[in-house]
Amino acid sequence: MAWTNEQQQAITLRNSSLIVSAAAGSGKTSVLVERLIQILSDTTEKVFADRMIVVTFTNDAAAEMKQRLQTAFEKRIAEEPENRWLRQQQLLLPAAKISTINAFCFDLIREHLGDGEITSSFRVMDETEQDLLFRAAVDEVLNRWYTERAAEMQLLWNAFCNHTDQALEELLLELKTFLASIPFPEQWKQQVLQRFSVPDAENPDYLEFLKLMQEKAAVLTDEVERLYTLSEDLYEEKNNVAEWMSVDFDTMHALLHALQQQPADAEQILKIIQNHLDARAGKRYPSKRKTVSSTALFEQIRDQRKQYDADMKALFTELQETLPYCREDFQAHRELLPILFALSEDIEQVLWTKKVQRNALSFDDGERMTLQLLSEMQDGVLTQSPLAKALSEEYQIIMIDEYQDANNKQDMIFKLLSHGCRKDADGTLQYGDNVFLVGDVKQSIYQFRLANPKNFLQCVRFAERESQQTEQPRMRCIKLNKNFRSSDAVLQFVNLIFSHIMQGTDTVSYDPSEWLYPGATGYQSLPEDRQGVEVAFLPETETADFQVIWITHTIQQMLQSGYPVLEKNGTVRPCQPGDFCILLRKGNPCQKYAKALEALQIPVKKVEEQGYLKAREITILLNMLRILDNPLLEIPLVAVLASPMFQFSMDEISMLRLLDRKASLYYVLSVAAGDAKSLATPELLEAVQQLPEPFREKCRSFWQIFQQLRTDSTTLPLEELIREIYDTTDFLSVMQLYQDGEKKRANLNLLIQYARQYEAQGQAAFTGGVTGFLRYIDALLEHDRDLEQANPSNGADCAVFLKTMHRSKGLEFPFVFLAELETEFSKQDSSKKMHVSDTGRMGLYLYDAKNYQKYQTLSYLVLLKEKKQQLLQEEMRLLYVAMTRAKQKLFLPLQLGRKETAIARQLQNKDFSKEFVCRAAVSSANCMAFWIWYVLYCRQDAEFLKCMHEWEARRPLPEETDFSTLSISYTAVSEEQLEAEQAETVANALPEPDAALQAEIETALQFHYADTAAKQLSLLSVSSLTHDKTQTEPEQEISWARPRFLQQEALTATERGTATHTFLQYVSFSEAEKDPKAALQTLVQNGHLTEAEADSIRLSDIRHFFQSELYQRVRRSPLILREKKFLVQLDLLLPKMQGEEWDTLKQQHNPESMIKGIIDLAFWEQNGFVLVDYKTDTTRDMTALANRYRMQLRLYQLALEGITGERVRQCCLFSTYTGAVVLL
Question: What is the pLDDT of residues 564-587, one digit of tens each?
Answer without folding.
Answer: 999 988 899 999 999 999 999 988
